[in-house]
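Sync notes, pocket subgroup
Present: LS, DG
LS reminded everyone that the earlier model was apo-only. Rerun requested with fe (iii) ion included. Inputs:
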Amino acid sequence: MAELTQKQLLDIVNTKHIAPGNPRLRQISERIVTDLFKTIDELDITPDEFWAATDWLNRLAQGGQVGLITAGLGFDRLLDIRMDEADEKAGRAAGTPRAIEGPLFVAGAPTAQVETRLDEGEPKGEIFVMEGQVLDTDGKPVANAMMDVWHANEVGGYSHFFPGMKPYELRRRIETDAQGNYRFRSYLPPGYAIPPNSPTSELFAALGRHGNRPAHIHFLVVAPGQRTLTTQVNIPGDTYIDDDFAFATRDGLIVKIEKDVAPAGYESLGITAPFTRARFDFVMQKALNEDEASPAARMARVTA
Ligand code: MBD
Ligand code: FE
């Protein structure tokens, strides 16, 4: 039987095949396996350490927390930085900065025309209206844009992930009118913290890191002919605004908060007393192809 050196084993693992398979996947697998062999050797990883890691990965996946770890280790922001770099190289107009989707988007939220409430019943925080237009990079209104909006509840929980919340609570889709207008009422969310006693919190404790995100609201905006825009806005004043565990805070995405706005004109949202408002326009890049305008692949992943 064959005795193998580390190098011989690696070569066999990386070249063994009886069919072409998927060349791109084989290339990626080869790189990752090579780097991990190297890590194990150079850091003298013990069998106990190795099997503890596989156990952790199993628990991480079982708990549906892989997306928390990718965000917390910077991979989600990395993908944004790479798309920004590609845009800049191609001389594409930037529009509203993109910001990570995160692992907590749910497709299929109830849809409203132009305006809606995200919350129901008694407000669980400061009554808040956000409003503005969806525009293209020429400054023209984007009619019939579909804007998904979602945020955390008063204790930082997201519906469909946090126990006790109603389906689609604090999640809505808003279709803009001919002028690209949107408007919604909700309450100002607090920040988010990773779930305690979870595989994610285990890793962050071991790394000596916190797992907090500053207060934010997510958006996913889709419109014919426009590049799908995934972004977030931050509420100013949060302790973690420059120390987000997911590295998603960006200039241009911190909204200005106006307090004590007069209620006139906001009756359709059930507002009869002074409230807190932010105005924000979303600027979408023009799509260069159908893929950029259609989030079909993205939606297929989340609805699966
Ligand atoms: C969130 O609310 C979030 O937006 C991200 C990116 C990661 C974890 C929780
Ligand atoms: Fe979030």
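DG: Residues 68, 71, 100, 102-104, 192, 213, 246, 248 surround 3-methylcatechol (ligand 1) (CB under 6 Å).
LS: The chain has a mean pLDDT of 95.
Action: DG to write up.
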